[in-house]
Every structure is written in C-alpha cells, then in structure tokens.
Amino acid sequence: MPKLRVLFSGIFLILAVTACDKDRVFDDYKPIQSGWNKDSVVTFNLGELDSLKTYDLFINIRNNGEYEYSNLFLITEIQFPQGKVISDTLEYEMAAPDGTWLGTGFGDVKENKLWYREDVSFPEPGEYRVKIKQAMRKNDNIEGIENLKGITDVGFRIENSSNN
C-alpha cells in the first residue's frame, strides 16, 4: 500500500508541475560535456509552429562555479523553413558586480532564463531551427576562448506571448 501511495503522489506532483506551465510551447536542454568548444553549435529543432500566434523566446543557461566570467556572449541563428536566417550577437550578465551568481537554483548550479526575442511570429509552414554558440573572448585577444568551462547545459524555450 505505501508503494501505491508513493506512485500516486509522484503522478500528482508531475501533473501539478506541468499544469502550472501553461504558456510553454517548447522547452529543451542540451548538455555541454567538458566545456563548450568555440566551434560547437547547439541546435534545437522547433518543428512547425502556429503561424497565427506570437511567441516569446528564451535561452536557458545552466552554469556552475567553474564559470570564470561575469557575462556571456552568444551568437544565435533562427533558420526559417524556406532558407531565411536571422542572426544575433547577444550579451548576458551572469553575475552581479559583487560576484554573486545571477539565476536560480540551489548549490553549485544556477539556471538563467534569458530573454531572447519578444512577440515573434513563425509565418512560414515547415520546421524552424535555432542554433546557439558561445562567442567568449578574452580582452585584447581576437581568438575566441577555445573551451569555455562552467556551462553545463544550454536550453531553448518558447512561450505563448501575453499579446495573443
């Protein structure tokens, strides 16, 4: 009987957590093993999205104490089904001026939900793709950081826009 109670409690917890996230359309993470190489591209296949709705887009970054910087530069691409590409170079703060990590989480790993784009529509039928790569460089060094330590996961999230 206790096993059955634990099973039902687990199912209820899963349903409660997913029911509270009604705005989520897409949410996926890719693990980064042994550092994020400057040439490594994290790709998310979004599938086909409702062309009549608008969405808010987020990049989710999980970092641990091995991350040595207070900011993070990323290069992103949204690839449309018919070949159009939108590229952005983005900078995000990862730590406060006093060195305290931004983001949420207990222990060593912090999760940052970073605004990417707001009220985006996906007008073309077909599958969309998002690509993300790190673009960190040390001051006075043209070459990028070869292997960026401390980023454990890169995620991409799409939510229904509040303007729908």
UniProtKB/TrEMBL annotation:
- Keyword Signal part of the UniProt annotation: yes
Query: What is this protein's record name?
Result: Gliding motility lipoprotein GldH
What InterPro entries does the annotation carry? Motility-assoc_lipoprot_GldH
Alphabetical keyword list: Lipoprotein, Signal
Any Pfam family from its record, for instance, is GldH_lipo
What is the residue range of the signal peptide feature? 1-19
